[in-house]
Amino acid sequence: MKIGRLVYIFMPAAILSAFLLAPKAEILGDSSRVIYFHVPLAMVSVISFVYAGIISLVYLLRGGALLPEKARNSAGIGIVCTALTALTGSLWAKMAWGSYWNWDPRETSIIILLLIYTAYLSLYASLENNTNRGKICSAYLILTMAVMPFFVFVIPRVYHSLHPDTIINSEGVIKIETSMRAVLLISAAAFVLLYIYLMDIKNRLLNIEKVKHE
Amino acid sequence: MNKLKKTVSFLLLSAALFFHPLFADTPLETAQNEESADNGALWNVLLIVLVVWLGLAAYLFRIDRKISKIERELHEE
Questions:
Q1: Residue A119 lies in a domain
Q2: Cβ of A174 under 8 Å from any chain B Cβ?
Q3: Which of A12, A30, A197 is facing B38, going by the closest CB pair?
Q4: Does residue A64 lie in a domain region?
Q5: Is residue A69 within 8 Å of residue A206, measured between CB atoms?
Q6: I need a surface site. Which of A98, A138, A140, A150 has the fewest CB within 10 A?
Q7: Closest to A46 in 3D by CA, of A151, A135, A118, A119
Q8: Please, which residues have CB within 8 angstroms of residue A104's CB and are 6 or more apart in sequence?
């Protein structure tokens, strides 16, 4: 049994609990339910970028077949999740702040992050016939892994932002009701499982392609 | 393929019937007030999200099965 397949149980549970179990927030009302999709997507995008960076580091240190391709798969999922985080955040901003886009530090940093990783995809595609493609792309992913925390965690805290304090805040206190926290955990687990499942599918396809080429 | 289509259609129809406000325990009269209207919208959004997920899940499940089939064939070769 592949662990990623648990997403078929966890995702409906997350959706149902987000709408039925979680209470609505005092000021934001029902729009606060976006948190159960927006935050886990942001979490998965960070996880996928970090994983891509780590396996790139392993590739540069020890080598290994298909590692740059696996890093590319992870970064690809990360880009989709980042774009969906920006989209859900934008829809939520319209409900909470009155407009879809405000060039808030967090919104700006997420766009820069998207550009950095989209540039990686371009780099990867342009080096198709280059024998050093794996090394160059791995080095790029390690550098972006080092830069990414500044865009996600540092810049939005340095400058004044409309964005509320995140779950992982400077005080180290989780400011969220217990029932909402439980639903958020279920949702985070569902999205992480979805990431694991998608990675498994993409990596199995990669192995099939490798066997076919041989 | 047909079996899958039937299964997905059944799941979607079941979800639609199960989560539709008409089948909820709330009496229809109370739907007049604002809170019930909000709840109705909430149920509709829940239904849409679930249908989207069911569609995606069916698609992922099909891809997973196809890959497993190719893997088996390659293993036999």
A1: yes
A2: no
A3: A30
A4: yes
A5: yes
A6: A98
A7: A151
A8: A93, A156, A161, A162, A163
Residues above pLDDT 70, as percent of chain A: 93
Residue partners of A106: CB distance under 8 A and separation at least 6: A89, A155, A156, A161, A163
Domain count for chain A:
1
What would the pLDDT profile of A133-150 be if each residue is shown by its tens digit?
999 999 999 999 999 988
**Residue in A12, A30, A197 nearest the CB of B50:** A12
Set of chain A residues whose Cβ sits within 8 Å of the Cβ of B64? 5, 201
Identify from A2, A15, A80 which residue to disrupt to test chain B contact, counting B C-beta atoms within 10 A and taking the largest count: A15
Name the one residue in this structure whose structure tokens are 């099909």: B62
For residue A102, being part of any structural domain is answered with yes
Of A204, A207, A208, A191, whose CA–CA distance to A48 is shortest?
A191
Within a domain: A150:
yes
Contacts of A119 (CB under 8 A, 6+ apart): none
